[in-house]
Amino acid sequence: MVGAAIELLVQDLTIRYDNDIALRVDKLEIRKNEIFGIIGPAGSGKTSFLNAINRMDEFNDSMNVQGSINFGGLEVSRVKNVYALRKKIGVVFPLPVGLPLSIYENVALSPRLSGVKDKTKLDEIVERCLIRAALWEEVKDRLHQLGSLLSGGQQQRLTIARALSQEPKLLLLDEFSIAVDPVTTMRIEDVLKELKKEMTVVLVTNLVQQVRRLSERTAFFLNGELVEVGETEDFFTGVVEDQRTRDYVEGRFG
Amino acid sequence: MFQSTELNRRNHSVQKLVSILFGVVTCLLIVPVLTIMTVLVYKGGPNISFEFLFSAPTNGMTAGGIFPALLGTILLVVVALIFSVPLGVATAVYLSEYASDTWLTRLINLAIINLAGVPSIVHALFGLGAFVIFAGFGTSILAASLTLGIMTLPVVIVATRESLQAVPPEFRMACWGMGATRWQTIRKVVLPNAMSGILTGVILEVSRTAGETAPIMFTGAAFFLPFLPQGILDQTMAMSLHLFVVSTQVPGVPETLPYSVALVLVSLVLIMNAASIILRAYVRGQKKW
Predict the structure, then answer these.
(1) DSSP assignments along B108-128, one per residue
(2) Residue in B101, B177, B193 closest to A100 by CB
(3) How far is residue B75 from each of residues B68, B79, B142, B211, measured CA to CA in Å?
(4) CB pairs A-B closer than 8 Å
(5) How buried is residue B110: exposed, middle or buried, by Cβ count under 10 Å (0-12/13-18/19+)?
(6) How far is A88 from chain B (nearest CA, A)?
(7) Which residue in A33, A90, A157, B251 has a CA-CA distance of 20 to 30 Å to B234?
């Protein structure tokens, strides 16, 4: 992976809520088509990091982002059309959010919002995204039922299908397996391994072993600080520099 | 091991007493409603006929029907709704979905609460000054409906804002995250899911508007009119004022007439409420998370 293209370059980033610093990152590189893991206990700034990438600070008056986040060669803080930026970034939240629309409309919403009206084209997008999110077989006969009535695991895959309908270049997953059973978690993980051929995936998780299964490289956040970045395998073979990282990975705290 | 102590027994009987007492108080609430309806139906019911509903008062309002007043009340309510619902919903959407917490929004919220607390007779005088005289609408349906609309605006705003805020914030986050604008999010996700609550606000408004007397007395409702209103700049008769007039202002009215008028007014409100409740149940059945 040495010399691989960089998709996301973060420099001198500081995220504050009012006057409290939530996260400080000096430098972080995320490469194209990798699954990049972010681990750390609650309150370490992981979610704030994701929110800064797709400019969700717009919706939180107290959140303040300073520094540079460069995505695909563009400085995100200078992007004028934030809607186009967010469309290129898919987000999956911790708790599944099936919008109270039909399964079909959940996936068709984003294409519709960006002006796709052709029925056959929408059908094609919905089918393709549901297949890639490993949900098609379970719902193909009831696409017009409410998406919010699916089981938690199905809703989480629906969320992924919805994110894919945006044709994102970057997929942000925020502890997606928190409300999902282990079997569905494994299915989603298989989906992610496929997806990274086409996009860059940032995987925030509490599950240290999930990072080991999926990601090439991992960062460890602790109390608003980027403690360490490295090859994921190094985290588990003890080749990490910081004692705190070793303690966290081995389960001595957190 | 599970023997009850003196304290246990006392707690138990106190709890029983409270539940019975409060239950009885709750049931007592039915009494006034039942009494009112029984008296109205008993005294006013026999007089009600197709003719009573659809003909004009005669003999100095001591005989004949109530059609001009019935039509007038419906017109006043409809025109008031046309003004207050879009205005109230727009305000609530702005306050709930757009505005951040600043001194200005706090001032607006305070204004809304105060508007709800202003007595209706004060609204009437405001309507007289603002719409009848200053805006030059004269005493008319338009002026009366605007007065009613302003008076009931807080109900619509508060009900709408509360039902908007009941829509989980996660839905908005998910929508924004996929690149939707605030307005797209409101239109596609927030408003459809807040609809049943908004309808509740409208129901409340309809009931209040139909029964109000003071605000329309100086602004558009007439004591007696020999003809029906031809447009919204005409005056009109109204049920609530008509009830007041036949009860206290006209000599020689048969005893049952005011009861009949009251029964029609109450039924009108109940029918409008029932229609809105059915509509709301339908909307609610459509969408759920």
Answers:
(1) HHHHHHHHHHS-HHHHHHHHI
(2) B193
(3) 10, 6, 10, 13
(4) 75
(5) exposed
(6) 8
(7) B251
Q: Which CATH architecture has domain A1-88+170-177+200-254?
A: 3-Layer(aba) Sandwich (3.40)
Q: Express each pLDDT in B177-192 by its tens digit.
A: 888 889 999 998 898 8
The DSSP secondary structure of B24-43, one letter per residue, reads: HHHHHTHHHHHHHHHHHHHH
CB contact under 8 A, A93 and B188: no
Q: Is residue A127's pLDDT more than 90?
A: yes
Q: How large is the average pLDDT for residues A39-60?
A: 88
- Looking up tokens 């049943």 gives B196
Helix (H, G, I), strand (E, B) or coil at B230: coil
- Rounded CA-CA distance A243/A250 in Å is 11
State how far the Cα of A156 lies from the Cα of A186, in Å rounded to an integer.
13
- Direct distance between the N- and C-terminal alpha carbons of chain A, in angstroms, rounded to an integer: 30
* Amino acid occupying residue B157: I
Cα A113 off chain centre by: 21
- The Cα of A93 is separated from the nearest Cα of chain B by a number of Å equal to 8
d(CA B224, CA B60): 9
Which of B170, B176, B179 lies at the smallest CB-CB distance from A95? Answer: B170
ipTM of the complex: 0.85
pTM over 0.95: no
Q: CB of A181 within 8 A of CB of A150? A: no
Residue A149 pLDDT: 85
CA distance to partner chain A, nearest, from residue B272 (Å): 29
Mean pLDDT for the stretch of residues A61-84: 88
Strands (E) across chain B are located at 57-58, 63-64
Token digits for A123? Answer: 């059908």
Domain extents in chain A: 1-88+170-177+200-254, 95-167
Domains and CATH numbers, chain B: 64-286 (1.10.3720.10)
Element (H, E) at B214: helix B214-217
Q: Are B261 and B64 in contact (CB under 8 A)?
A: no
